[in-house]
Amino acid sequence: MSKLLDKVQFMVNDKDFDLVNRFRSGDESAFNDIVREYQKIIYWHALRMTGNHMDADEVTQQVLIVIYQKISSFNFKSSFATWIYTIVQTRSLNQIRKNKLKNFFSFDDLSEDKLLSSNNIFESFEDKEKIEKLNKVLEKLPIKQKEVFIMRIFDQLTYEEISKITGKSVGGLKSNYFHALKKIMEAGIDKYD
Amino acid sequence: MINDNELNKIELEAGPFLDRIKSLNEVHINDAYFNNMIPRVHSRIAMRSSRFKFLTVSAYAISFTITLFLVLPMLSTFNKIEQSTMTESLQETVMSSGLNIVDEAIYVNRSDKNIEIDFPDDWEDAIKEYYANEINQSPSYFVYQDLSSEEIEAVYQRLEK
């Protein structure tokens, strides 16, 4: 994952510029290159935000479709990665809201189906368990704290980058991150073993 | 507002927790999942585009039908107006021929007979219609009702000339 994160560039880089311009000039294969380049970043962020593979998969597909449809309106005012992160973040939050509504109106426990859906995705049973544990940690945090925590810890973004993505003030983000750390420490380290 | 010192302090304290959490994130996902992403996304884009086309065509069809239903009665009204205008334009001709003949005939003689004008086949529909309207709608309807059989006969004869 850390290798993957190294790829994420939050400055406008030549490769992104070239990919976007190729796609805009009608080269459909450029979109496939964009998918190959960004699909893992999108999926992982969506997985941490939503907490299950089924929703993360849905968000990933939605984000890639949005990129396909809206790439012509991308103006390089921010980096391509920031733009993609903004879309993933918005779509993930929408998916979480949708799930809350579904759970409210449903009599069945939908989380069981979602756990089963990830059975064939992870390479080993240990990996699956790790993700379940991680989700248990993250689901303790309120959304605002969760998003800044994920972007700081896993995506290694600066507060300024997170501010660009979420549209929130740096001060507010620091405050949310502080409370997230506090909450995780209060829960105790033994919970994560 | 949280100051940077407080934040750095808690980050240091949380270090072991964060390392443990980060290690939970070191998992591998089957390559097949990511390899299938491109065809899946493309098929979804195609599906969306065909759905969009279907919705656009439906929207056009619905708006066309609605417009048609709105326009048809309007066209019919315009047609009626046009017809009445045409009738009015024929009025002068009619007045100078048929109506004058009828009017003249009316004053010849009167009785309690109703008038029924049987128009010759070669007469223009508009003229027939005009006469029919005149008989039913004008105040002189009652005058026509009083025509005697001779008067009607005279009217017919004049009309047929």
Features:
heterodimer, A: 193 residues, mainly alpha, 74% helix, disordered N terminus, B: 161 residues, 0% strand, rod-shaped
Instruction: Summarize the main sheet of chain A.
Output: none
Low-confidence stretches of chain B: 104-114, 137-144
Report the β-strand fraction of chain A as a percent range: under 5%
Helix/strand/pairing category of chain A:
mainly alpha
User: What form of chain B results from the Cα inertia axes?
Assistant: rod-shaped
Biggest interchain interface, per-side counts: A-B, 40 and 32 residues
- SSE arrangement of chain B, N to C: HHHHHHH
Please outline the helices and strands.
The complex is a heterodimer of chains A (193) and B (161).
Chain A: H1 2-7, H2 14-24, H3 29-50, H4 53-70, H5 80-105, H6 110-117, H7 125-138, H8 143-153, H9 159-166, H10 170-187
Helix pairs in contact in A: 2-3, 3-4, 3-5, 4-5, 5-9, 8-10
Chain B: H1 4-13, H2 15-24, H3 31-35, H4 37-106, H5 125-137, H6 141-145, H7 149-160
Helix pairs in contact in B: 4-5, 4-7
Summarize the structure.
Chain A is an all-alpha fold and 193 residues long.
Describe this structure in words.
The complex is a heterodimer of chains A (193) and B (161). Chain A is mostly helical. Helices cover 74% and strands 0% of the residues of chain A. Chain A has helices at residues 2-7, 14-24, 29-50, 53-70, 80-105, 110-117, 125-138, 143-153, 159-166, 170-187. Chain A is globular. In chain A, 37% of the residues are buried. With 161 residues, chain B is an all-alpha fold. Chain B contains seven helices and no strands. Chain B has helices at residues 4-13, 15-24, 31-35, 37-106, 125-137, 141-145, 149-160. The longest helix of chain B is centred in the middle third of the chain and has 70 residues, at 37-106. The radius of gyration of chain B is 44 Å and the shape is rod-shaped. Chain B starts with a helix and ends with a helix. The model of chain B is unreliable at 104-114 and 137-144 (pLDDT under 50). Chains A and B meet through α3, α4, α7 and α10 of A and α1, α2 and α4 of B.
